[in-house]
């Protein structure tokens, strides 16, 4: 397969059990180069477990994980992140008492050598995410929407090939959602970075994603373009019938 078409990430029959509960069952998932892929499903569908499996925070009970063409099944989260898959966390991960600049600096530790180069990377990253005016501010003092962007900035400062975002739009108003979606498209277009978006905001997912994967009870229900997913009877019955547009 042509290198440019090879999936950046693929799971083959990946499964995770917690005692008697099967949280994710026999899931095949692919993330392609330069795409924004949405991962959706009702609460308890297995989205967070899947996210933790592909980023190395959980080890699979069965199945395999391939990251950038290499079998990474059972590898640690740190090894996987160093290969270029970086994730954010649902409730944000930043140092509240540090400045925005120093927070973004943390994201450059593994990928950028030399203090001057790190400072340049911080400035570029802040510019890309609209955070330049806030660089000297203490991160914990910023409004919620900007704190969310700081978490994304820390992850993106490493210039990952695959940026995995866990519910980045939670608690954002409509303007902040629109700005964040535009920023994700900029990251993809300017840096060729793929994005995996786990998100409850259905309108946003339908607007920004190239393809969407739907989980239900830990199993794959459907994959397709937003138009295909919107029209899929199984998805409507399982998920879209419950309004999740809030």
TrEMBL record:
It comes from the Bacteria. The keyword Cell inner membrane does not apply. GO terms for molecular function: ATP binding; ATP hydrolysis activity. CDD domains: ABC_Mj1267_LivG_branched. GO terms for cellular component: plasma membrane. It holds the Pfam family ABC_tran. InterPro entries: AAA+_ATPase, ABC_AA/LPS_Transport, ABC_transporter-like_ATP-bd, BCA_ABC_TP_C, P-loop_NTPase. The keyword ATP-binding applies. Keywords: ATP-binding, Nucleotide-binding, Transport. Residues 9-242 form the ABC transporter domain. This is ABC transporter ATP-binding protein. It comes from Xanthobacter flavus.
